[in-house]
Amino acid sequence: MVRAISLYSALFGVWLLLSGFFSPFFLGLAALCCGLVVAIVLRMDAVDGMPLPFSLNWRVFSYLPWLAWQIVIANLDVARRVLSRGPDIDPCIDWIPSSQKSDLGTAIYANSITLTPGTISTSVEAGRILVHALSSEGLRDLKQGAMDRRVRGIER
Predict the structure, then answer these.
(1) pTM exceeding the 0.85 threshold for the entire prediction
(2) DSSP secondary structure string, the chain?
(3) Average pLDDT per run of 10 along the chain, which is 156 residues long?
């Protein structure tokens, strides 16, 4: 029952954040739709057999602003490289160590790499991620491990 209530709360919370409608009519429809989704999921037995997907700790709230800042820095770097007279682009690909403890942590790390302009995660294996970078500096920064340590820090 706790999982059903947490699913309902998460669905309703996301609806509130994304819709922007707070009239009683829309709130009632949202409550009804969220209840219907929870009923369908319970009928499918998809909630009872699964653990809660929230295996992150409170440090995620400090990681997200840090990641946003890294995205801004990488955007500026890519713009500088593209707009320079002689493009300073040196594409390379290499394996980056990944020390995450869970599949969720590895997925967050790989997606964080891809969200950062100039780098793309192309393959994930146990303990490493294949990354294509616009420059060797991008790979060097990833190999230093700041992002890896931060993602490992948000896992429980």
Answers:
(1) no
(2) -HHHHHHHHHHHHHHHHHH---SHHHHHHHHHHHHHHHHHHHHTTTTTTS--S--B-TTHHHHHHHHHHHHHHHHHHHHHHHHSSS-----EEEEEE---SSHHHHHHHHHHHHHSTTEEEEEEETTEEEEEESSHHHHHHHHHTHHHHHHHHHB-
(3) 86 90 92 93 66 65 92 94 84 94 90 94 94 92 92 86
